[in-house]
């Protein structure tokens, strides 16, 4: 059995795989395995995975049909033989001592979970934590403080979650993953890490936060264009699916209603994003199409509930949220149309 299994889902990442594996091999962990999960790549990534597996004893390769990152990670978990499990995206850059630090911290504190800070190349900043210098969470604090901070903010004016619930910043125990059947959801392609963390943190006795950047989250130009400037069909339906997944996970542990209250602030951000996305359809599908989609979003029951009780002080956001609350699809279409033209 290994001390650590690092799972790397790979899909058409031919330009990044070798560099990422090279960094992982420098972690200085003797009993470690690196599991490359080729998710049906078609750009030659699959061949590089095989070459790396043949060249290094620690590197193992698994080829599967394309099913998305959640499915790829799940396949990696099934094959993992390590006591602890970590995840790394093929085009990101963990520090050369990241997993050694996380592993030693978990062993020293007898913890079930360990998280580090992340630097985002796109945003040009660290994601950070609300707890300076790190923190240890015990028993109920794992859900009441750590998980709550991943679900949303207590302040309606703040659109950012206090803790970004990504799996690549964390180390998990294989025993807990297997004992409770914890896996990534495969029916969603957005924030599946958050659902995974909710499922895991429910069963944590002790978690440790390290207030240090050990992981660099990178973006290539293609993914930037796809994510932020091009209309994404079915975004609203996918966000609703995510919300349903999360609500199902937290209902049994939300004793005071605080988790649902926090998650409402995140839901508003999701729908804000969906309306902006619908406005992007103007350039390729026309104003009428964008208007109809925005009207459908603001008239839905799930959006009505999310925007029903607002305490917003920021005037710009208050105006925008009131347009959504009052179902003013025409004004929203014009607002976002003008805003997108200026970019």
TrEMBL record:
- In its keyword annotation, does this UniProt entry include Glycosyltransferase? yes
Q: What CDD domains does this protein map onto?
A: Glyco_tranf_GTA_type
Name the InterPro entries on file.
Answer: Glyco_trans_2-like (IPR001173), Nucleotide-diphossugar_trans (IPR029044)
Leader sequence range is none
Could you state a single Gene Ontology molecular function term? glycosyltransferase activity
Glycosyltransferase 2-like domain residues are 5-128
Q: Which UniProt keywords apply?
A: Glycosyltransferase, Transferase
What is this protein's name? Glycosyltransferase family 2 protein
Q: Which organism is it from?
A: Dorea phocaeensis
Taxonomy of origin reads: Bacteria, Bacillati, Bacillota, Clostridia, Lachnospirales
């Amino acid at each position: 059995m290994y001390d650590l299994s690092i799972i790397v889902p790979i899909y058409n990442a031919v330009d990044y795989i070798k560099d990422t594996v090279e960094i992982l091999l420098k972690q200085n962990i003797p009993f470690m395995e690196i599991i490359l999960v080729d998710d049906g790549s078609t750009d030659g990534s699959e061949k590089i995975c095989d070459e790396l597996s043949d060249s290094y004893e620690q590197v193992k390769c698994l080829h599967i049909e394309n099913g998305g990152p959640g499915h790829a990670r799940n396949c990696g978990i099934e094959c993992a033989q390590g006591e602890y499990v970590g995840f790394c995206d093929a085009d990101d850059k963990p520090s050369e001592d990241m997993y050694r630090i996380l592993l030693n911290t978990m062993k020293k504190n007898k913890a079930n979970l360990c998280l580090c800070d992340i630097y985002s190349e796109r945003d040009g900043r660290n994601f950070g934590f609300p707890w300076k210098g790190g923190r240890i969470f015990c028993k109920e604090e794992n859900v009441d403080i750590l998980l709550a901070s991943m679900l949303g903010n207590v302040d309606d004016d703040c659109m950012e979650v206090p803790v970004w619930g990504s799996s690549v910043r964390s180390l998990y125990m294989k025993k807990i993953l297997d004992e409770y059947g914890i896996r990534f959801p495969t029916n969603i392609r957005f924030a599946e890490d958050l659902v995974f963390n909710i499922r895991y943190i429910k069963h944590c006795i002790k978690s440790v936060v390290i207030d240090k950047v050990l992981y660099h989250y990178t973006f290539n130009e293609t993914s930037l264009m796809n994510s932020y400037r091009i209309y994404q069909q079915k975004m609203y339906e996918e966000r609703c699916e995510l919300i349903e997944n999360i609500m199902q996970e937290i209902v049994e542990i939300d004793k005071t209603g605080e988790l649902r209250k926090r998650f409402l602030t995140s839901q508003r951000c999701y729908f804000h994003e969906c309306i902006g996305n619908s406005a992007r359809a103007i350039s390729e599908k026309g104003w009428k199409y964008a208007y109809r989609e925005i009207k459908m979003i603001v008239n839905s029951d799930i959006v009505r509930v999310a925007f029903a009780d607002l305490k917003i002080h920021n005037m710009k956001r208050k105006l925008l949220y009131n347009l959504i609350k009052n179902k003013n699809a025409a004004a929203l279409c014009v607002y976002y149309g003008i805003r997108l033209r200026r970019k």
